[in-house]
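Task: sequence design from structure.
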């Protein structure tokens, strides 16, 4: 069983009660809408740089900056000293901790971000939980819906466990990092301090302090002559015919 405490330091969120009594950590996602219905109230203490659209039932903490063009639909609770950058899109049912970054053209939906998370560039985070100081590289996508009908299952211990959730992206443990343009498929779980290399297409459970690598080779070959290439660029010895 993967309990919340196996992945997350519950002292690094103001919303630890959301996880109380959860056997499997993903059970918190089914509670999220009800939790926000009870706790989210209009309370804006942020600064706007430019014009942002902030809906009803949105609370934003002191020291947080919301940049021009951002949209926060709500319900949502966003902590202190965060940066919500230009054109960020925060949809309904989102909890964001203190000191987080949500960057340009990022979309966050039905998700929990613990303190110190960085989701800085062109990311999609749907139906997911990101632990303390999780970092996503540019273009990382947390896919939350299967291509075929049915609920999302987690591959664990040689078998599968049906979560009962039609939409479930990923659980990413504290201090884990995901490299640029990686995709985490529905039901992915990354352990604490794990690392996913750029461009990896990941599914399943990655244990704590482990690395998921993409070992695809890149071939290096001489470039053929083509129009528009100046003679100076074509001068010199040909490149070695090696693979890197």
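Answer:
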């Amino acid at each position: 069983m993967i309990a919340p405490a196996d992945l997350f330091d519950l002292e690094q969120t103001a919303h630890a009660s959301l996880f109380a009594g959860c056997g499997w950590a993903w059970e918190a996602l089914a509670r999220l809408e009800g939790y926000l219905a009870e706790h989210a109230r209009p309370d804006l203490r942020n600064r706007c740089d430019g014009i942002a659209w902030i809906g009803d039932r949105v609370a934003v903490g002191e020291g947080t900056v919301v940049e021009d063009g951002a949209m926060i639909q709500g319900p949502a609770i966003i902590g202190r000293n965060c940066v919500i950058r230009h054109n960020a899109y925060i949809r309904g049912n989102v909890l964001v901790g203190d000191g987080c970054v949500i960057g340009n053209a990022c979309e966050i939906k039905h998700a929990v971000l613990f303190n110190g998370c960085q989701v800085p560039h062109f990311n999609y985070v749907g139906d997911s939980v990101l632990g303390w100081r999780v970092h996503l590289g540019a273009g990382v996508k947390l896919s939350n819906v299967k291509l075929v009908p049915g609920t999302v299952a987690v591959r664990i211990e040689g078998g599968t466990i049906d979560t009962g959730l039609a939409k479930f992206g990923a659980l990413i443990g504290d201090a884990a990092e995901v490299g640029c343009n990686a995709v985490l498929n529905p039901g992915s779980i990354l352990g604490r301090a794990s690392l996913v290399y750029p461009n990896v297409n990941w599914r399943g459970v990655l244990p704590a302090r482990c690395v998921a690598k993409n070992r695809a080779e890149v071939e290096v070959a001489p470039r053929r002559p083509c129009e528009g290439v100046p003679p100076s660029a074509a001068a010199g010895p040909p490149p070695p015919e090696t693979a890197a």
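The chain has a mean pLDDT of 94.
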